[in-house]
Prior knowledge:
Elements: E1 7-8, H1 11-23, E2 31-42, E3 45-53, E4 63-64, E5 67-69, E6 81-82, H2 86-93, H3 97-115, E7 120-121, H4 134-144, H5 150-156, E8 160-162, E9 167-173, E10 182-190, E11 204-210, H6 212-220, H7 228-238, H8 243-251, E12 262-264, E13 272-274
Parallel strand pairs: 2-10, 6-8
Antiparallel strand pairs: 1-13, 2-3, 2-5, 3-4, 3-11, 7-8, 9-10, 12-13
Helix pairs in contact: 2-3, 3-4, 6-7
Amino acid sequence: MTIDRGYPAPPALAEHFRRFHASGAAPxxxxxxxxxxxxxxxxDGFEVYLIRRVAAMAFGGMYAFPGGGVDPxxxxxxxxxxxxxxxxxxxxxxxxxxxxxxxxxxAAREVFEEAGVLLAGPDRERVLGDVSDDGWEAARVDLEQRxxxxxxLLAGRGLTLRSDLLLPWSRWVTPEFEPRRFxxxxxxxxxxxxxxxxxxTGEADRTLWVRPADACDRAGAGELTMxxxxxxxxxxxxxxxxxxxxxxxxxxxxxxxxxxxRLDLSGADGPRFYLP
Length: 276
């Protein structure tokens, strides 16, 4: 499913749109963020990991991918780094090297905080296996509660950040009428062998692994509520035959040019989002 013909907008967002334009207020400045599509093999295809945000959060009740805002420490962290250098990431993301490091660190940190998956290893060639025991969970909670930093976590365990396990995919910016806006870089990553996701309470009230095409169908049927960036991205990866095809597609993706959905209230079918 795509939103070429429009995608229904939740009533709350339509109300935000009306209130913003009536107020004449200046748009909020978007916060830089990162999100990760975790993928794993499933039969002759693959599945993606989705979480449903709790109602009290921004975009609550929506299904999305693990992710969140860049933390100030993400741009200054000193850590062992494998994969493209920050300058190379900057070229792909349209950012300075320091800003690119922050986005990549945020992607790896958020997927550990929200899904319990750690894209790191003891050296540049290996990646950790199972990280679901009580010790790792305590480390995850400390990171989530900002009692420790991501670089501190990795250094304390002698680990290298495997930035090469993240593949840049796209960049989406929240429409101007939203009171909370994000400038979000989307990445794809294969679930490391031996690791498993775990439901993290607090920010999500439901999680699931699902084939991307099935998720699109369920969104179209109203079973899974999503915003346009999630729906569109699911459709894009669903068009790939397998995980190798996803990786090939990622090499040619434009991950620097921002995409902002347009909300139209004038249609007979009610408020709908369209791509620019």
